[in-house]
Design goal:
Number of strands: 15
CATH topology of one domain: HSP40/DNAj peptide-binding domain
Order of helices and strands: HHHHHHEHEEEEEEEEHEEHEEEEH
Shape: elongated
CATH superfamily of one domain: Urease metallochaperone UreE, N-terminal domain
Structural class: alpha+beta
Number of helices: 10
CATH class of one domain: Mainly Beta
Oligomer: single chain
Distance between the termini: 71 Å
Largest sheet: 4 strands, mixed
Helix content: 10-25%
């Protein structure tokens, strides 16, 4: 029985991206909707599902196991976040460093006066740039965040033991009498001894070192499926830091956007009601426009070595062609793709223009002479001194 690697025509050292590309090429060939063998399609799909999942691939490499249900149970023995390979994730990084503290670390230290807590803060939104290839092939990465949670040992007060403030008698405020000549003015302000809390700390909570907060690490999984589009988002409920002003921590919303640094977006534009089509412009020379020929389109996310297209002869400025099935994958429709829309642009070099002018009458005259309109006028009325600028 061939191995999963042999089924997809890849090697054990190939990356996940290479394996995905091999699968997409085979899926085009064997998809039942295109007349392929359903069993063969299931076989390559199963091989791709296992080899593009880091955990399942590791289990397969070590045990040869291909039953995905058994793999799920086996994966529970791996440390860390579900689906994590031994030794950690290759995409692990500190979310606070990356997103500039988007998870809202709360202020550390005592807060003056009672706080009327709101239920939950608004979600924090952060955009992540995604390359066209990642939208085409799919992509998964893990994000490690550091957040602060309320210390449960001291009910986030920072104190292991407290006592009623004697100066304000637990009121959190003190009244003073200020004598101004014959008048006495009564002022009330926060008690400085207890900082307005009405209680004084007599023993610091050791686990949180008196801050009222504990540091914890959490991992988030962002799984981009093939064909997903920009502006789609992932919501992670209540992963931001706890804050004294709110009953619950805030949500994090990760929004996808096209990576402005990816040159593929300068070559291709996503269009269509589901952004399933790719649109590009091909620039032809005069010779290619008149005679046609094979053109290599670079940058297509599914074709590392370029996509080769036969351009028909007589392709002129602003002509539009459609190449069916060479656009983006359709989410939820395995093996189906949008179209590649090609717009023609023609540029004429000085050399090709001169050659065309020199042979135009002899080459094209017999074909088009009878189609030229006849204009009645005297010979000396015709102006021949046109200058090309």
């Amino acid at each position: 029985m061939p191995s999963l690697y042999e089924i997809l025509g890849v090697s054990k050292t190939d990356s996940c991206t290479t394996i995905k590309k091999a699968y997409f090429k085979l899926a085009r060939l064997h998809h039942p909707d295109k007349g392929g063998d359903p069993e063969k399609f299931k076989e390559i799909t199963k091989a791709s599902d296992i080899l593009t999942d880091e955990t399942k691939r590791k289990i397969y490499d070590e045990t040869g196991m291909t039953d995905e249900n058994m793999m799920e149970r086996q994966a529970q023995g791996f440390p860390g976040f579900p689906g994590a390979p031994a030794g950690g994730f290759p995409f692990e990084f500190n979310m606070n460093d990356l997103f500039g503290g988007m998870f809202g670390n709360p202020p550390v230290g005592p807060q003056r006066g009672p706080i009327r807590k709101q239920r939950k803060p608004p979600a924090t939104v952060q955009t992540i740039p995604i390359r066209l290839e990642q939208f085409y092939l799919g992509h998964r990465f893990e994000i490690q965040i550091n957040r602060q949670s309320f210390c449960t040992k001291c009910d986030h007060s920072g104190a292991k033991a407290k006592e009623t403030c004697r100066k304000c008698n637990g009121q959190g405020a003190v009244t003073q009498v200020i004598q101004m000549g014959p008048m006495a003015m009564h002022t009330t302000g926060p008690c400085l001894d207890c900082q307005g809390k009405g209680e004084r700390m007599i023993e610091v909570c050791a686990p949180c070192n008196g801050t009222g907060f504990m540091n914890e690490s959490r991992k988030l999984t962002v799984n981009i499926t093939p064909g997903m589009r920009a502006e789609e988002s992932f919501l992670f409920p209540e992963v931001c830091s706890d804050h004294p002003a709110f009953e619950r921590p805030g949500d994090a919303q990760i929004m996808l956007q096209e990576d402005p640094a990816d040159p593929a977006y300068r070559q291709f534009k996503r269009t269509g009601d589901r952004f399933q089509h790719l649109e590009t412009t091909l620039t032809l020379s005069l010779a290619q426009s008149l005679l046609g020929g094979v053109i290599r389109i670079d940058g297509h996310p599914g074709y590392d070595e370029g996509l080769f297209v036969q351009i028909p002869s007589g392709s002129f400025q602003n002509d539009h062609y459609v190449l069916k099935g060479f656009g983006m994958p359709l989410p939820g429709n395995m093996g189906q793709y949008g179209d590649l829309l090609i717009r023609i642009q023609v540029t004429v070099s000085a050399d090709q223009r001169a050659r065309f002018v020199e042979h135009a009458s002899s080459t094209w005259g017999p074909l088009f002479q009878d189609l030229l309109p006849t204009v009645e006028c005297a010979d000396d009325a015709v102006q021949h001194d046109l200058i090309l600028q």
